[in-house]
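Homework help board

Subject: predicted structure for assignment chain

Our instructor gave us this sequence and asked us to write out the predicted structure in token form, then describe one feature. I got the tokens but I'm not sure how to describe them. Can anyone check?
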Amino acid sequence: METKIRKIDKNQIDEKVIEEAGALLREGKLVAFPTETVYGLGADALQEEAARKTYEAKGRPSDNPLIVHIADYEQLKKIAVNIPPETDILAAHFWPGPLTMIFEKSALVPYGTTGGLDTVAVRMPVDPVAQALIRAAGGFVSAPSANTSGRPSPTTARHVEEDLSGKIDMILDGGTVDIGLESTILDMTVSPPMILRPGAITAEMFEKVIGQVDVDKTLLSEESTQAPKAPGMKYRHYAPKAKLIMVEGDLREEILAIRQISYEADRKGKPIGIIATSETLPFYNHGIVKNIGTRENEKTIARNLYSILREFDEENVDTIYSESFAVQGIGSAIMNRLEKAAGHLRIPASEIVKLQKYRRVTFVSGTDSARGPMAAELLRHCDLKQEYVINSRGIVVLFPEPANQKAEAIMKSARMTLADHSSLQFDDEDIKEDTLVLTIDESQKEKILSEYGSRDNVFTLNEFIGDDTAIPDPYGKPLTAYGECLEVLDKLIKKLADKLNSLMEEEK
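My token output:
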């Protein structure tokens, strides 16, 4: 089958294109079209055979009900019965819009559309293209998301084409959708009404209009034999090709955990995917990192979610790790989709973070111009099982200076560099509990302890690794003295790396 693609502008709708698409739907054929939430796969909701074609094109289980889209409120009475009185006020506030309501169905709606249920899910989209198409098709268009079942929902026509080209008759390309997540589903057959799928319209928004609503806390699992009452409840949905895992904890723990996971994967030559935000993007040094949006405006996260999941399909990763989001407002919908995409696979960030006794290693010397920076650079080149922030500081630094020229020359001979180093004074930020402070000489340790009091994370380098080899001070001496210093530091730092790796194993 050849899938026709027709460009359409919601601000200047081409009536000929709409009539062509409407005629296809009236003939029982399938047309994908944009809504404000995601692209829908349209069919005549009152034709049983059209529903069958929809399930076939998507590879969708036939017990997963389809949502019937209408463009005029009066049409609801033709397909639903026993409509509760709260419906009028809900429709006045949220229709047209990203709200689907479930009612008892009328005899007009075939069971093929409702997945065999006596209820029907109904929505009135706000998108002008969707409204025009629904009217052209006869007023009732069933439209699940226009993707292969289980895949991330489409937010552009290109996504639809990737999944369904050759399986459906037409795609109306109206550009990128506005919201990016499917509608909120509210079950009106129970009292109080119950949210079965979170979306852009939240429980708080409903409660301002009609009072109490319940939220379904027990969404059906894949093992359940009960028919789902609404789309997206039972089966794994929205999933990229790679395995997706949610990392859960407070944000700081999540960042630290994902950093360690990505560091270990990089050591093994296995790049992973990371879903980050604008705020956390700078903290990740390994893996393929994608920015899903900003936490200051979670609507950007919702809009980008499915496109980010699809982008990972083009990357060579087996596993994607995602930060979690606050389960309130539209964050509830974001987490619902991510957890479904992950098949509810999750790991507690605290389980990984607790394995890391130290997260920073700071070397302290006199002026932070030679031995401290050399030790830090040597450790950065070691094979460590954990990612550390490695730096150096000085006890007496009047102003930032580059590394000693002879120290830089000797490091270059060892294929390392101090070119970017700038000396810094040791201060309060360098004495935190998660920082291992290693001084080059005993005098520097004594100075720190005298200023900051007794600490169990401050050692001389020799003390920490159990090696009393003196570290020579090459200051004011020939280049050969810096070479001798490097040889000693190299041996000591290799022992330090072994010690740090053994600490990691002990914590496990």
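Reply (TA_rk): Your tokens look well-formed. For the description, you could write something like this. Residues 219-225 have pLDDT under 50 and may be disordered. That's the kind of observation they're looking for.
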